[in-house]
Specification:
alpha+beta; Uridine Diphospho-n-acetylenolpyruvylglucosamine Reductase, domain 2; about 25% helix; globular; four-stranded mixed β-sheet; Uridine Diphospho-n-acetylenolpyruvylglucosamine Reductase, domain 1; Uridine Diphospho-n-acetylenolpyruvylglucosamine Reductase, domain 3
């Protein structure tokens, strides 16, 4: 529970951006967290809870205390004939959790294979991929309320999940520390292979009766073919959200670009692919030397070596402005900016 001073944050964010924190400490139990929050050095200072650092861009030093969430454990807490409820510590690596479920034959999160980060961040972001979101399997989570150290249980309704949104990114921001998340998974898999290129990848693998392991492997293969490994090339995955826009704007864009794909989003709106918009705006592979837009997935901004957070943030502004000018669509950043 030692507290480091003027700690380097580069190892703790997947953009590999250099920034300093006034203080940094780790916790892996509730008692350790409570002790840290009550300590004279930490109490009353700005707090930043970090898991895998896979959805954050540091544009400056953090003048407060960074707490690294390392809450461990994966355990079955309940089961019946059709479902199993699995509780995972917030500090467990997300992909480790997914692989553990796949190994046991518990279905529901296999489409979310290889997403970077930790379990605790999953409900904050309502992470999603290939037609699946966390809310689809979420049961509950336990969090510590920073103000008084009390443990609070949140059900799905209390989390107020939206598209890459939750209570913890809005009303409850900076008020709670997520400690564990419980998922309700299926013993009898219902596979989702219609989204993206999963079925094509299964066909390529010559698999006609896929298991959840096969779906997981297909997703891993697809992600590795399109997305850079943060250990090799600094990035935070998808930097921008897929925008939801009025149908009349979709129709206007499609008149000029018939190949544009859109998805119904209710009440006269549709969801567009931000990556397609950025690519068609001419920015896929765009480079500014030390940083740029990834050459295989335009949703991803990359640190090509030595970039600062300010430089990447300025690049994101350029992307927003260019897409707005070309298509009239306002993109929104998915990554948290500090």
């Amino acid at each position: 529970m030692a507290i480091q001073h003027l700690a380097e944050l580069k190892p703790f964010n997947t953009f590999s951006i250099s920034a300093k924190a006034d203080r940094l400490a780790r916790f892996s139990t509730v008692d350790e967290l409570r002790s840290l929050l009550a300590s004279p050095e930490v109490k009353g200072t700005p707090l930043l809870i970090l898991g895998g650092g896979s959805n954050i861009l540091f544009t400056q030093d953090f003048h407060g205390t960074v707490l690294l969430n390392e809450m461990p454990g994966i355990a079955v807490v309940q089961e019946d004939a059709e479902h199993v409820w699995v509780k995972a510590g917030a500090g467990v690596t997300w992909h480790t959790f997914v692989l553990s479920c796949v190994e046991q034959g518990w279905a529901g999160v296999e489409n979310l294979s290889l997403i970077p980060g930790k379990v605790g961040a999953a409900p904050m972001q309502n992470i999603g991929a290939y037609g699946v979101e966390i809310k689809d399997t979420f049961s509950s989570l336990e969090a510590l309320r920073i103000a008084d150290g009390e443990l609070v249980t949140f059900n799905k309704e209390a989390c107020a999940f939206g598209y890459r949104e939750s209570f913890f990114k809005r009303t409850g921001k900076d008020q709670y520390v997520i400690l564990s998340v419980t998922f309700r998974l299926n013993k009898k898999p219902v596979l989702n292979t219609s989204y993206g290129n999963i079925q094509q990848e299964l066909d390529r693998m010559e698999i006609t009766q896929p298991t959840i392991r096969d779906v997981s492997n297909a997703v891993i293969a697809i992600r590795r073919s399109k997305l850079p490994d943060p250990a090799v090339l600094g990035n935070a995955g998808s930097f921008f959200k897929n925008p939801v826009v009025p149908q009349e704007l979709v129709d206007r864009i499609k008149a000029e670009h018939p190949d544009m794909v859109s998805y119904p989003a209710g009440e006269g709106h549709a969801k567009l692919a931000a990556g397609w918009l950025i690519e068609r705006a001419g920015l896929k592979g765009y480079s500014r030397g030390s940083h740029g837009v990834h050459d295989r997935q335009a949703l991803v901004l990359v640190n090509l070596g030595g970039a600062t957070g300010h430089e990447l943030y300025d690049l994101s502004k350029h992307v927003l402005r260019t897409v707005k000018e070309k298509f009239g669509v306002d993109l929104e950043r998915e990554v948290n900016i500090l």
